[in-house]
């Protein structure tokens, strides 16, 4: 199964770069020939191009929820974002909307998409460091992704 691990974020906006940091930590641990690790700061429609041609995508990103606690790691599927679908302008297309558009266009998107989202605290301060609770969640998320790659089996 051809798998893409994609870390998202901006590495100079404190916790927003957590997805990229998890992807970098995974690179040194993976030795599976059909698994590619990438990192990106793109979003919206540009995001779709990266997914085309893979059977499975594991996406790692920052998230901010109303009740979340910094450092909490969630395992989500795209359906969790269905309520956020909108297309007010082509420049303001979120993840769920981009996926829906890609499907309607007949793009060869992954059949399985898993999102690991880390609850973040600070995404507005220019810093190359994550806040302590988010930094501590990085190895937790790495282990969750490794477990996902191993078919959900405990290591």
Describe the protein.
By secondary structure, the protein is an alpha/beta fold. It has a single domain (3-149), classed as Rossmann fold (3-Layer(aba) Sandwich), CATH 3.40.50.1450. It contains 4 helices and 5 strands. The protein has helices at residues 18-27, 45-51, 95-104, 132-149, and strands spanning 3-8, 35-40, 56-63, 73-76, 112-119. It has a 5-stranded mixed sheet. Helix 1 links the parallel strand 1 (3-8) and strand 2. Helix 1 (18-27) crosses helix 4. The chain is globular and about 40 Å long. The relative contact order is 0.25.
Helix content: 25-40%
State the helix count. 4
Strand content: 15-25%
Number of domains: 1
Low-confidence stretches: 83-91
Strand order of the largest sheet: 2-1-3-5-4
> Mean pLDDT score, rounded?
87
CATH class: Alpha Beta
Largest sheet: 5 strands, mixed
- SSE run: EHEHEEHEH
The CATH homologous superfamily is termed HybD-like
Shape: globular
Rg calc: 15 Å
What is the fold named in CATH at topology level? Answer: Rossmann fold
Number of strands: 5
Q: Could you give the distance between the termini? A: 20 Å
Structural class: alpha/beta
CATH architecture: 3-Layer(aba) Sandwich
List keywords for this structure.
alpha/beta; Rossmann fold; five-stranded mixed β-sheet; globular
Give me the secondary-structure topology:
Elements: E1 3-8, H1 18-27, E2 35-40, H2 45-51, E3 56-63, E4 73-76, H3 95-104, E5 112-119, H4 132-149
Parallel strand pairs: 1-2, 1-3, 3-5
Antiparallel strand pairs: 4-5
């Amino acid at each position: 199964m051809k798998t893409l691990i994609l870390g998202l974020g901006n590495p100079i906006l404190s916790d927003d770069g957590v997805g990229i940091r998890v992807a970098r930590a995974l690179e040194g641990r993976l030795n599976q020939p059909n698994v590619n690790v990438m990192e990106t700061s793109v979003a919206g429609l540009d995001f779709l191009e990266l997914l085309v041609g893979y059977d499975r995508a594991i996406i790692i990103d920052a998230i901010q929820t109303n009740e979340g606690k910094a450092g909490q790691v969630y395992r989500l599927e795209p359906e969790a974002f269905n309520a956020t679908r909108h297309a007010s302008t082509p420049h303001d297309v979120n993840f769920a909307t981009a996926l829906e558009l890609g499907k309607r266009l007949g793009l060869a998107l992954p059949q399985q998409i898993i999102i690991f989202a880390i609850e973040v605290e600070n995404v507005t301060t220019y810093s190359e460091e994550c806040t302590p609770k988010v930094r501590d969640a990085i190895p937790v998320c790495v282990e969750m992704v490794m477990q996902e790659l191993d078919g959900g089996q405990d290591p």
